[in-house]
Specification:
Aspartate Aminotransferase, domain 2; about 35% helix; aminotransferase; single chain; alpha/beta; PyrdxlP-dep_Trfase_major; Aminotrans_3_PPA_site; seven-stranded mixed beta sheet; Aspartate aminotransferase family protein; about 450 residues; binds 4'-deoxy-4'-aminopyridoxal-5'-phosphate; four-stranded mixed beta sheet; Aminotrans_3; Aspartate Aminotransferase, domain 1
Amino acid sequence: MALDRKLAPNDLRAFWMPFTANRQFKSAPRMLVAAKDMYYTSADGRQVLDVTAGLWCCNAGHCRPKITEAIQQQAAEMDYAPAFQMGHPAAFELANRLVDIAPDGMDHVFFTNSGSESVDTALKIAIAYHRARGEGTRTRLIGRERGYHGVGFGGISVGGIVNNRKFFGSLLNGVDHLPHTHLPENAMTKGQPEHGANLADELERIVALHGAETIAAVIVEPMAGSTGVLLPPKGYLEKLRAITKKHGILLIFDEVITGFGRLGSAFAAQHFGVTPDMMTTAKGLTNGVIPMGAVLATAEIHDAFMSGPPNVIELFHGYTYSGNPIASAAGIATLATYREEGLFERAAELAPYWEQAIHSLKDHPHVIDIRNMGLIGAVELEPIEGQPTKRAFDIFVKAFEAGIMIRTTGDIIAMSPPLIISKAQIDDLIGKLGDVLKAAA
Ligand code: PMP
């Protein structure tokens, strides 16, 4: 039965919307009321092609019956159970299934409810890990310019987005940032760019400045999604891995977007052949259907906490909803769907088609860069002088009217469709987006 959720204009007042121009939205709302596979249905009854997998999360497409049924069944059987000093089977099963698809050596899973919580959890584990091993001076954290690690105080401190930081006080102490890797000489590169691996050497400079014995961890997105699909230059992640290993610093990959098949492997770590010490995940873990995140850690990290008396809590950290039964059931069904439908392999197979499709937009007005990898891509537009973000935002609105849901960040259009997208739907996207770009000029 369809849910009847008709709203009068005044009913929009109470919800203070996140990362939204509230007044603009409420003057001309873009309302979604249903979803199936690759499409949303808008409130005015139009089918809108979802080219963003919701918010980079619905990797198997929308309203997949197996996931829906798993949630319904778990909700009816046991709605909630705590994971503090208690357990229930679904959380343990999901942890095992995650370890099955993770890079070798990632053997332990700490559940959270979001990407932001995964990031703050990983940062806390990193500091506590060194302390547990008698290296309590290792407390400094290193992030990267233009990094996005969610909106907790830890995440915005290591993150590198000015607007996410500057309104919120002094943030965490003891944080440094590597330079971002978005270089003009890599413009219009297909796949991984050539220039910029040397930017990882900046880590040596930071280590020399503070001393390795003060540094706990480096956190980066192996491929930055939210800040406009910024790809790691060839050799860059390998260098970061080598330098962190040399100095006993933990390397954390924030795989909140790159996890669960986006690049054609379960995780970006496998795609790039570089294994970190921890990975943060969320989004595609439950196909976006129920909030859930997870931190994956090596046995070395986990075991460092396990040497005290066995009846004493080892890590003073956790959430009321860590390993929530309904979220766990959704996660198990989601991973089964990815596996049974071969969706990670499908993303890898479609990647060359996707690459040539999005690069075909290069001659459109105001396009200054196009980037792609796996089933993710970005079209960067020349900003309107004095009005940054306006050009892309206008295109986002027009694209929605034309029946495609894209996402914009600054003047960059980002696209990350569900991994079930067909070639015909990719063609449809390119045709419609091309028309919108032309019309906007
Ligand atoms: N890390 C990365 C790399 C992300 O892309 C995001 C969300 N886009 C987050 C963390 C935060 O996730 P959440 O919004 O679930 O807190």
